[in-house]
Amino acid sequence: MASASRPLRGKRACKKIFWAVFPHACFILSLVIYAFLGALMFSHIEGNRKVNLSEEYRKFLQSLWYISRNLSDNMTENEEVFKEQIHGLLNTAERDWFVNPKDIWTFFGSLFFCCTVFTTVGYGNTYPVTRAGKYLCMLYALFGIPLMFLVLTDMGDILATVLSKSYNEFRKLQSKILASKLCSGSMCNKGDEAKSRAQSKVVLNEPLTIMEVLKSQPGVKRKPIKYRNAEIFEMLIARENEYAKPARNKSIERWSSCPELARGKTMSRVMENFDKIGKQVEKLDVPIVLMVLVIFVYISCAAAILPNWETRLDFQEAFYFCFITLTTIGFGDTQLEHPKFFLFFSLYIIIGMEIVFIAFKLGQDRLIGLYKKVISFCGEKKLPSKKIYPK
């Protein structure tokens, strides 16, 4: 019987893990499918558009030919004038006159564009030109941006839980090391400490009277009467609650013979997982200096890797590019020669945006706390002091 129950327990554990991971996987999969559909749509619309040579393009070519002819005739004369004319003419040029749309709007280029849209980065080096592409871009962003923020919030909960547990474990380890140093320095006796702890515990396995509790607790006798009575009352309430718990029969589960109950319980757990999205980020409480350090290390790692395929970028330029990307500023002043390689780095972008989002949330909470302290301090200063008149 024991060997037969082990596979059932393993299956139940796998089902619990699956339904716990299901909401997170659902959000990420939805975002991936949404990005691929957008890439197919924009590559078809913008990549297959016809390039019409407008009147402005013809005027541009005529002006360029005229300036180049005058420059060849008078090479040494009025050089500054020619530079100003060339500079002004190039400012009127449009990039679409010199670029084939199929070279820009490939599948990977369109996928990179979709990622810059719903992450609100928007570098500006790739943008829709056709009217249908502009309308679809607005509609695509209208649904893609909320989906992206939902993924950020959901994965931010996971990241906040990991950071919170890691920080708490580090604090516990730090306190244990400090306690061990103090204990070794003061030559404390562990046996006496364990004995005193055993004496201080209250054993309430059987109903006890108040006098028995007093006799079993020497530490309680030394306290004042009101604190002694309050402790005794809390102990008795704890004992009553322990005995009032209904006995649970672990051998027989209600839903073991009724799959409908198990299915309903699983669905309720899944619904609870959906309802708890964003709660862990609200509970996170770690030092803001730690988050700044995490962001610096995170961006530095990418800045060291990115110049391997973007040869025009050094470490400083790559660091600047990653920071502008993760903060969704996206100036577009630094352009990528191989965006499809950085596209495969999209997981890095999403996780980095979550880290920056958590850091901004912590900074916001700290600012609110600072404002509260300043307002309360100013309010106390402005309150008139009470004058005491002699009787």
UniProtKB/TrEMBL annotation:
GO terms for molecular function: outward rectifier potassium channel activity; potassium ion leak channel activity. Its main location: membrane. Pfam families: Ion_trans_2. Coiled coil: none annotated. One of its GO terms (cellular component) is plasma membrane. Residues 103-159, 294-364 form the Potassium channel domain. The chain crosses the membrane at residues 21-45, 104-123, 135-153, 286-306, 318-336, 342-363. One of its GO terms (biological process) is stabilization of membrane potential. Belongs to the two pore domain potassium channel (TC 1.A.1.8) family. PANTHER family: POTASSIUM CHANNEL SUBFAMILY K MEMBER 18, POTASSIUM CHANNEL, SUBFAMILY K. This is KCNKI protein. It comes from Centropus bengalensis. The lineage of its organism: Eukaryota, Metazoa, Chordata, Craniata, Vertebrata.
